[in-house]
Design a protein that fits this description.
By secondary structure, the protein is of the alpha/beta class. 20% of the residues lie in helices and 34% in strands. The strands form ten sheets. The protein has an eight-stranded mixed β-sheet. A five-stranded parallel β-sheet has the order 4-3-5-6-35, sandwiched between helices. The protein has a five-stranded mixed β-sheet with strand order 8-14-13-10-11, with no helix packed on it. Helix 2 packs antiparallel against helix 12 and helix 6 packs parallel to helix 7.
């Protein structure tokens, strides 16, 4: 094939429709038969005349065709999805591909086209989609066969039909020794979030694939955020339920590892990782306003606007010194439930806010000591103070003063009056509570409204993140043993909520303060975080230390460790990103803190079954007349050309069909009985017949 050929053949182009020509032939046959029955003279000449007439009407032609032979096309499909990277499959597949290409180059009249099956996201191995795209411009009459190098885990296999590729065979080469086994740890049900302080339930199952007699039980190792692992003996093939405690807000990473199955193709499928986001159910906030004032409504609106907050709010309208001997049953006031709030139920609150509260005998020292103990044991306290903080009844002079991050001066000059704009300190530009507040840009005047009063303090400890122009602190954050305290040294923030001189970010600032007090992970000032997304791992370090960040140590799920330098991305922030293709738990550590991130399989369908198998493709291979070959230990089979209808494979060889397809490049037609010759013969034979009959 492939050269120029000339084919000569006899063809007919009738001058009459077929039915009419057949009727005429029958009439001639009857006339000849009648003459022969009567023994008429000249019957042979009459028969010859009729024969020439019918032959002329049939239009005999000598047809000469010039043909150009076409080369056959074979398709080589190479699976390069994620499962083909297991073990030495990729190397075996590449060796087989090179061998097939080299052999095909030596076969006459054959072109080999190669296509690659890439990773398809969450769709698995789309082998036949790649074949269909490649066959779109290959005529079926020229297709010699399809050779697919794959592990057999294909997820778009069509229903087998007779001769699915126009009679061309499909040969499958599998880079393995034979059918493989694997152990799979399958996550049946896993919640995306859990309530802090309450356990969540995981449903998992261990399954042995390709094993004739699976084990009865297997060990399951459970690790949670780097804590010491716990090991349980669980049944194989049956779903089990695991209880996972959620101890903190933010992501909780749970790593599961099933005992390795002897002879399994990989242990990748025997491990799984789940990330559960811990959230607080309902945040219970106690707000106590010491007296009615314009800023009281700001606090209430802010807290009531958050649907996750249960607010308990009391305003002291009638302090003890205003005793006018009015009977209690005649007062339209609710008695302040001091004992219930500050002794019986104090531990139920996530945050206590004291807004312009002064000690006027409302809270006995024992209850104030309860608040201080509540903070030391992990509670959160926010004080927003005004002139009362500098007076004789200041909370700083009570047992609560031991947990406050500053003390009032107690002088007449302690209440500073006059317009000013709050400033963010150098430390505040690095602290997430005040970092990036709308209206503030380091080195430029703030673009927010003025306040008119703040309280001067001394003995300051903690983090001063906002200050007045005179250098006095405005917002101080402090860690007190297990708890946290925030002190806002002005009662003028409500002016921002009223839009005074353009207003300011009071809602965002107060929200950040409250959530920092309640340990929102995103507002931790010194933290190391790791997040996996899009096949990459992003590690970020937040720190109040202005020194250059040190390196982080990253450990992948296989135990390989590497040290990476963090690159500054902003005040108090540095990060590094790296590829994270291996599914499982990744660990990052800066020497002080360790964090964990869950990397899920990029294509869960692709990793659902890692065994090399011929079972899935067997029906369509059989329907096409192809064959399946294991590449271990023999390697790629020999290529042969076979005639159409012949056997297409043997133990160590595969056949590609010879199609002999061609295109016609020229046609020459020569009439064998032109009209002038036909008429001459017909008239001559008719005259001879008449002459013979007339004697």
């Amino acid at each position: 094939m492939g050269g120029e050929q000339t084919i000569t053949a006899l063809r007919f182009a009738p001058l009459l429709p077929g039915w009419l020509l057949l009727a005429l032939a029958l009439a001639c046959a009857l006339a000849v038969a009648l003459a022969a029955w009567r023994r008429a003279r000249g019957v042979l000449w009459r028969t010859a005349a009729f024969a020439v007439l019918l032959l002329w009407l049939a239009g005999p032609r000598l047809l000469q065709e010039s043909r150009q032979g076409l080369r056959d096309i074979a398709l080589l499909v190479v699976d390069q999805t994620a499962s083909m990277q297991i073990g030495d499959r990729a190397a075996l597949a590449e060796a087989a591909r090179a061998a097939i290409v080299a052999q095909a180059a030596k076969l006459p009249d054959l072109d080999l086209r190669s296509v690659v099956v890439p990773e398809a996201g969450n769709a698995g191995t789309r082998l036949f989609a790649a074949i269909d795209r490649a066959l779109a411009d290959i005529p079926r009459a020229r297709l010699a066969g399809i050779i697919a190098i794959t592990d057999g885990q294909v997820h778009d296999i069509p229903k087998p039909a007779s001769a699915p590729f126009g009679g061309a065979p499909l040969h499958v080469l599998i880079p393995a020794r034979g059918e493989e086994t694997d152990r799979r740890l399958r996550i049946i049900e896993a919640p995306g979030y859990g309530i802090v302080g309450q356990p969540v339930q995981l449903r998992v199952a261990i399954e042995d694939l390709g094993v004739a007699h699976p084990a009865a039980t297997a060990r399951l190792t459970i690790r949670q955020d780097g804590a010491p692992p716990r090991v349980e003996q669980v049944p194989v093939g049956a779903p089990i339920t695991l209880s996972v405690p959620i101890t903190r807000a933010g992501p909780t990473v749970v790593a599961l590892q099933a005992e390795t199955l002897p002879g399994a193709v990989s242990d990748l499928n025997s491990r799984a990782v789940v990330s559960i986001n811990g959230v607080r159910d309902r945040l219970r906030v106690l707000l106590v306003s010491g007296e009615p004032h314009p800023g009281e409504r700001t606090w209430r609106r802010l807290l009531k606007a958050d649907p996750s907050v249960d607010l308990v709010h009391f305003t002291i309208l009638r302090p003890p010194e205003k005793d006018d001997l009015t009977p209690l049953n005649q007062l339209a006031l609710i008695a302040f439930p001091v004992r219930e709030l500050f002794q019986v139920k104090i531990r139920q609150f996530d945050l206590i806010i004291l807004d312009r509260f002064q000690n006027r005998g409302i809270l006995p020292p024992a209850y104030l000591r309860n608040i201080a103990d509540y903070v030391r044991q992990g509670g959160a306290l926010l004080l927003s103070v005004g002139p009362e903080f500098n007076g004789l009844d200041s909370l700083a002079a009570t047992p609560l003063g031991a947990v406050l991050p500053a003390s009032p001066t107690g002088l007449d000059s302690g209440v500073v009056e006059g317009p000013f704009r709050p400033l963010v300190t150098a430390l505040g530009t690095r602290d997430p509570v005040t970092q990036g507040l709308a209206g503030w840009q380091d080195g430029q005047p703030p673009r927010w409204g003025e306040w008119y009063r703040h309280i001067a303090v001394n003995d300051v400890h903690g983090q001063v993140v906002m200050r007045a122009p005179d250098g006095q602190p405005l917002l101080v954050l402090d860690h007190v043993e297990k708890g946290r305290v925030a002190l806002l040294l002005s009662d003028q923030i409500w002016l921002w909520s009223r839009g005074h001189e353009g207003g300011g970010p009071q809602a965002e600032l107060l929200r950040r303060i409250a959530h920092w007090l309640m340990r929102e992970p995103e507002l931790e000032e010194n933290a190391l975080t790791a997040e996996a997304s899009g096949g990459r791992l992003l590690i970020e370090r937040r720190s109040l230390d202005p020194a250059p960040p040190g390196p982080v140590s990253v450990t992948d799920p296989d135990g390989h460790r590497q040290s990476l330098a963090l690159q500054p991305t902003g005040p108090g922030r540095a990060s590094v990103s790296l590829p994270a293709s291996t599914p499982g738990v990744w660990q990052a550590s800066d020497g002080t803190r360790s964090v964990y991130a869950a990397v899920a399989a990029a294509d869960p369908l692709e990793f659902a079954d890692l065994r090399a198998t011929a079972t899935k493709l067997a029906p369509i291979v059989a329907a096409s007349g192809g064959s399946t070959h294991w590449l271990v230990p023999a390697g790629a089979p020999e290529l042969r050309r076979v005639a159409s209808g012949a056997a297409t494979a043997g133990a160590h060889w595969i056949g590609l069909r010879e199609n002999h397809d061609h295109v016609v490049t020229g046609i020459a037609a020569l009439p064998l009985l032109p009209p002038w010759l036909a008429l001459t013969l017909i008239l001559g034979l008719a005259l001879l017949a008449w002459h013979r009959e007339g004697r």
